[in-house]
Design brief:
Blueprint (H helix, E strand, L loop, with lengths): L15 E3 L1 H4 L4 E4 L9 H14 L8 E5 L3 H13 L2 E7 L4 H9 L3 E5 L9 H14 L3 E3 L6 H18 L5 E5 L4 H11 L6 E7 L33 E5 L1 H12 L7 H16 L7 E5 L13 H8 L12 H5 L4 H6 L3
Parallel strand pairs: 2-10, 3-4, 3-6, 4-5, 7-8, 7-10, 8-9
Antiparallel strand pairs: 1-2
Helix pairs in contact: 2-3, 2-6, 3-4, 6-7, 8-9
The structure holds pyridoxal-5'-phosphate.
């Protein structure tokens, strides 16, 4: 029976979902959403805060500041509340409403950036905003998840060995790439393991993390509008890119089987399923990482109006995933609310 006194002290590390019946391929999904921060970012947040404390950078007077699309912001909000630090999160208009409200409920200040940078993302603008804050007052401490080695070290210490413990015959690992902290920590750890593991990075179309053309991306967490400073491509065997419409379809396919995951999990599972179909993968042991769960995305990924406005009326129809409410109860209030105006 785990009994804790601090909210960051519990993190389920051994839960995997066998997705074969959903994806039609042997694939296990490591679930990172079962902790009080609700995402994989708890690991990076813990590691970065503890190392700043050890180095004497973080004092009771400090005001933590971080640029985050949401999940790291929630994790830092929780840790800051528990340890008595102030925290200011700089996010952007793609951050889910519920995520912003969560940070505020935990006592953090949230600044929302609405101006896009030259790559069509918000990261450049967010980082510039954080820089200006830090220049304005010595009390601000920017952990900088984009450059902080604690970000990848957290996964080197925890995520990768947790996978290896359960899958001693692992052949291929699919990891979504944002800051690439998860990717680099796992890739570095498996590079020195007893057997070769193919490391496949999953990015979204429109992200420039691994090069390529910038484009519209509406699902937060995965993808970057700049090259991630933590990324060392010599540890990555392959990069696959997933269209957001495919992400959406995979999220809904899993939800129809009762597994409500976050948007980036749809990206990783869609990319992994496609990869496994293209390779003769029946005998391969494959694992993918699910960074969070789906409740924070009810007003985006799982909301019919949002989907139709961004991806067209038929985004869910190809696989018979059209909105059930309209077909089953065409006259009900629920369907009226969900139908596009
Ligand atoms: C939902 C979600 N998926 C994926 C990622 C990417 O993880 P990483 O920054 O370790 O590359 C993040 C990071 O914030 C996230 O919040």
């Amino acid at each position: 029976m785990p009994v804790i006194t601090a909210p960051y002290a519990f993190n389920e590390g051994q839960l995997f979902v066998d997705l074969e019946s959903i994806c039609g391929r042997p694939l296990h999904l490591k679930c990172e959403g079962f902790n009080f921060a609700g995402s994989i970012k708890l690991k990076a947040a813990n590691e970065m805060v503890e190392s700043a404390e050890r180095d004497g950078l973080l004092t009771p007077e400090s005001i933590l500041v971080e640029s985050s699309s949401g999940n790291l912001g929630v994790a830092l909000s929780m840790i800051a509340a528990s340890k008595g630090y102030q925290f200011l999160c700089v996010t952007d208009s793609r951050c889910n409403l519920s995520t912003r409200l969560l940070m505020e409920a935990l006592g953090s200040e949230v600044h929302v950036i609405a101006d896009q940078d030259s790559n069509g993302g918000f990261l450049g603008t967010r980082i510039e905003y954080v820089r200006q804050l830090c220049a304005s007052d010595d009390r601000y401490l920017w952990l900088s998840q984009y450059t902080n080695a604690g970000n990848w070290r957290a996964h080197y210490r925890t995520t990768a060995p947790e996978i290896a413990d359960q899958f001693p015959g692992l052949d291929v690992l699919f990891v979504g790439a944002g800051t690439t902290g998860t990717l680099m920590g796992c890739a570095r750890w498996f590079r020195q393991w007893h057997r070769p593991v193919r490391i496949v990075a999953v990015d979204s179309v429109g992200s420039v993390a691994f090069g390529g053309e910038p484009g519209r991306r509406m699902i937060p967490g995965l993808g970057m509008s700049m090259r991630p400073p933590l990324l060392d491509e010599s540890f990555v065997d392959e990069v696959i890119r997933v269209e957001e419409a495919d992400t959406i379809r995979m999220c809904h396919r899993m939800a129809r089987r009762g597994f409500l995951f976050g948007g980036s999990t749809g990206t990783v599972v869609s990319g992994a399923t496609d990869w496994l179909a293209r390779h003769d993968a029946e005998d391969l042991t494959a694992v993918a990482i699910a960074p969070d769960l789906g409740e924070r995305y009810l007003d985006t990924v799982y909301q019919t109006n949002w989907l139709q406005d961004l991806y067209g009326d038929h985004v869910l129809e190809d696989e018979g995933l059209g909105p059930v409410t309209e077909e089953v109860e065409p006259a009900s209030r629920t369907s009226e609310r969900r139908r596009r105006p």
